[in-house]
Amino acid sequence: MVLRPNQEGMDKQFLAAPVKSVVDKYQLVPEFLKVRGYTNVRVGEPCVVVDSVMEQLNPHRCRLSDVTYAAPVYVDVKYVMISNGCKNVVTKNDVVIGKLPVMLRSCCCVLHGKDEDELARLGECPLDPGGYFIVKGTEKVILIQEQLSKNRIIIDTDGKWCLQASVMSSTEARKSKTVIVMSKEKKIYLDMNQYDNKVPVMVVMKAMGMESDQEVVQMLGRDPQYGALLMPSIEECASLCVYTQQEALEFLEGKVKFRFYSSADEKESRATVILRDVFIANIPVRENNF
Predict the structure, then answer these.
(1) Among residues 171, 172, 149, which one has the least CA distance to residue 282?
(2) pLDDT of 259
(3) Which of 65, 113, 183, 273 would you call most buried, defined as having the most Cβ atoms within 10 angstroms of its Cβ?
(4) What angle is formed at CA 251 by the lines to CA 286 and CA 168, rounded to 5 degrees?
């Protein structure tokens, strides 16, 4: 096949493009090993070398001897030797390139497939589910940690199985966490560290300038389900006699923790500063236009 100039340029561009997904990157591993001359990569049985003799390991021995429960990684190496102008391909089998910690009860573990009697002879509890490692005699567990994405809304439930939406707002100058939570009574609240306790979300909306309940509902959508969803919160706001923006700001001002001080002009209430600069910090508010 002969490539035309434009087609050849496109192919070079395609080959030089970065690999997008992790799945595609894994397909490069075998090709990388071919270039490096490694073949037949495999993991052996857990073992340790004592006085130049390789002995099999079991987890109980590793706990008592402060040894890492690991298995050797074997490869076959192919390389070219040039002698008197002749090239010869030489192969070395079972070359150890390192050791890999073995998870207990995995397919590489000596406990895999053992019955209760065999586990007892190896010093293991039959009820031990495995799934951990032994490093220098100490049992180690891989902990999965999840960091909240900044400026992304995360939907989950709290300890009382109440639905909540949280966002970690982050800018160069400020970082805050805002949580909107729905109670079992279907009332929606704002939960922030700057307030003594949760505040009704409808009061927050009125403090931001949406004095009409109908305006708040229409911001969500015209479907009747949204009005029904907000009805308990609307009724709670009315029971607190909060109808205007000024009344809402005064209500929130009374809920601000005493230790929160405003660095802005003293003419501005702390409630205004919180809503403008802290509530969702990554969204700028200009001239208090929420």
Answers:
(1) 171
(2) 59
(3) 273
(4) 50
